[in-house]
Structure of Aromatic amino acid decarboxylase:
Amino acid sequence: MGSLNSQENISSNLFTNPLDPEEFRRQGHLVIDFIADYYKSIEKYPVLSQVQPGYLKKRLPDSAPYNPEPLETILQDVQDHIVPGITHWQSPNYFAYFPSSSSVAGFLGEMLSSGFNVVGFNWMSSPAATELESIVMDWFGNMLELPKSFLFSGNGGGVIQGTTCEALVCAMVAARDQKLRKIGRENIGKLVVYGSDQTHSALQKASQIVGIHPENFRTIETTRSTSFALSPESLKVTIHSDIEAGLVPLFLCATMGTTAIATVDPLGPLCSVAVDYGMWVHVDAAYAGSACICPEFRHFLDGVEGADSFSLNAHKWFFTTLDCCCLWVKNPNALVSSLSTYPEFLRNKATESKQVVDYKDWQIALSRRFRSMKLWLVLRSYGVANLRNFLRSHVKMAKIFEGLVGMDKRFEIVAPRNFSLVCFRVSPAAINNKASSDQNGKRDYCCDANGDEYSVVINDVNRKLLESINGSGHVYMTHGVVGGLYMLRFAVGATLTEEHHIALAWKVVQEHADQILIKY
Amino acid sequence: MGSLNSQENISSNLFTNPLDPEEFRRQGHLVIDFIADYYKSIEKYPVLSQVQPGYLKKRLPDSAPYNPEPLETILQDVQDHIVPGITHWQSPNYFAYFPSSSSVAGFLGEMLSSGFNVVGFNWMSSPAATELESIVMDWFGNMLELPKSFLFSGNGGGVIQGTTCEALVCAMVAARDQKLRKIGRENIGKLVVYGSDQTHSALQKASQIVGIHPENFRTIETTRSTSFALSPESLKVTIHSDIEAGLVPLFLCATMGTTAIATVDPLGPLCSVAVDYGMWVHVDAAYAGSACICPEFRHFLDGVEGADSFSLNAHKWFFTTLDCCCLWVKNPNALVSSLSTYPEFLRNKATESKQVVDYKDWQIALSRRFRSMKLWLVLRSYGVANLRNFLRSHVKMAKIFEGLVGMDKRFEIVAPRNFSLVCFRVSPAAINNKASSDQNGKRDYCCDANGDEYSVVINDVNRKLLESINGSGHVYMTHGVVGGLYMLRFAVGATLTEEHHIALAWKVVQEHADQILIKY
């Protein structure tokens, strides 16, 4: 099994129906083995692809083939030409961005969804696709102890979107139209959207898409004093200033687990501010939200009950493959009012009975895949107990890495670690040859680099260190900048990662630091 | 293989890594067999699901399991509880809406995409994902003989979106911002979007999302005299009236293959009108565009050279599974200007070299799947020659069905058949007991029903006929209404459909007509 060299049956697909069940079976087994073999040998590839721009054009023909080619040839090309151009997000040595956590169950769910290949735009087009989604979104919401008002069982409800940006577009369009119905459509240019300088860029993009005036998009500055969380006081000041200028506060995105350092905005106090101004609050928990199925992390979601919508990406840290962004809203009618269309060709008795959910009215697109299948398979295949343990094991590995950083006096932790993300850098002391005198193994988070001309040098050292590490291909990490500090981000969560990979990664960091620091 | 009863290894997944390669292999083979068996036996299920709203809640537990469950149990539940709630879009007896055409190659491409599970937001995050997409979009564009200005090789370019609505949102945001940069952001309330009463509802939805004033969305009436195609003269009149009212024409969506009857708007003349007013023209060829890889159908695209963007859904009639909407634009910079964000965490040398495409700036979402993999597999596995033949075989089957309708004097064809869609109905003559005298087997398309009180009855007969047919479960068709006429739509394109299914479908129609007409 798994051999690409078998010539047997190579041309059997040429004259059969392109969905012939037996050909499906034969080729499907080949590809299962191909992917299983890929996972088995994944550590032999450089984690970050090392190809140069335009590499693939040189290797592929200029046009599609006129005649069919056998799967075996295609798989050989995948191996020879695609794999080198892949950055291996599933490698156990992948610690970049946030994880894109696969699992066997998530993969199988995607297979079943593709196999049925139904287009579940409304209930009638495939009742199971709609009903399973509503059911698993309530299951998952209960696991997260979301307030009942976000669940179908409490007159709210959940929907699977592709990504956070799509979820934000839907929530923002709903908020926009609600507001404009009150103040008049001609005032669209007065609406203001709020986030912090740590909020994901998806907020800005959603704001651009739904027609918010670009000058009315606010990124409120955060500071080290709040661990770069959005301050309710700063929000209030900004809102007041906007209102004085004749503008209308519309939408706040609070984040649970920011992109750079996974900090958590104070949800309760932010919602309290927003409610005074009739704003829609969305909580973006794209990465860290999943952790809240563990009781010890649930407190990070305290205050979510004041929000209007909440989303997390199950494809980040919850074992479904891309894409599976879970969005819950308190008032589904607000989505439906803005996103519903009911053309003649979709008219049907079930919709008219008002007994069913038609998810087309909860999202941008009409067509939709059967994505709940993979969430259902993940929940059932692993169960709540194991899912908690998987997440805890990632947090534990992050703690181990944090400990290793703490033991090397040349390095420092840059921001408090809440989940499975460690933010660290070569410390100024290491370059100043003061490492031995300044360090005591229990130092505070590093000092503010603002205004320090020295910070240019230290940032540059860390940038070079990261480039050197990633160029090696042994591990892959990415960077962040907060408060002027360039740092390395070590995000644990690739499913295959185990403790020995953490030790290896740290060894790689140290070796490259040895090389870089010798020059300073 | 394929047995769900094997107890062997049932608990082996409980203590292993959730992406363990050998467990992946074992379970992957099981699911391949499950899906192959499903295709093999697909004809035994009612095509349109016959369940009632709320059926699944009664069958599933109220919460996610605490402990893991074996795949074998889950697959048994898929069989027992999900399959009955599925409308079988892959059944050879599926003729509803437009097809959602699967293929072995499309499925395998999705598997590889899910297997690698890379998040290809920019070039660097997985160069192969970006480069393969650019390459296959040029391949496909060449197969369609798109003007070079839509291809990367001609300074345009293609991108794979999820759906037409997403493609329209992107194109419309680009058009909106281009226009507002000229006339001032404060004029957003003056922008007007144009389609016809046959344009897909995705246009209205996109328009709502990007902040076009709802009163500035125009659905221009079409008539039988143009086979319900959008008349350039009507467009011009509408535009003039808007300009006189102080509004600003922004965006026109022309359709190649409308939803109800697959008519083709006159692309060239419409583009000529639009260019005079500086409007963006999008051509939506969601269903019928694929046919243009056959030289004999390419003329339907004549005039596309005047458009700014063009899209078709490869997941409809081009053998990729959901979702794979191919969008080509002449001016990618217009998309990038509106959709680009460049936060710190995504900064990288490749982007800064300006030698690469970062597809995140061509779409709504940041994250994106490796969807080009399935288009590549479809193109290579079948080759241009076979792909043409597959599409031709569907058209041929539609012709056969059309012929069968023509031979039964109780029925009439309601609109000219261009592709693989046949629109027909029980004719007024059949009810009037005039069938034998009125019919000569070569009659024109039916008379206009407007103003005819008789049309209420005839529409009702056809509605009952469709309900009766779909209630049988033997085949599934949907309806359309144009010019007041209720008609049955018979869309050929499910991959498994062969000629004997056409004969069977017609027999089902006749039998149900026998039953219905007896009452009239």
Summary: Chain A touches chain B through 153 residues (CB under 8 Å). The domain at 158-357 of chain A is CATH 3.40.640.10 (Aspartate Aminotransferase; domain 2). The longest helix of chain A spans residues 372-407.
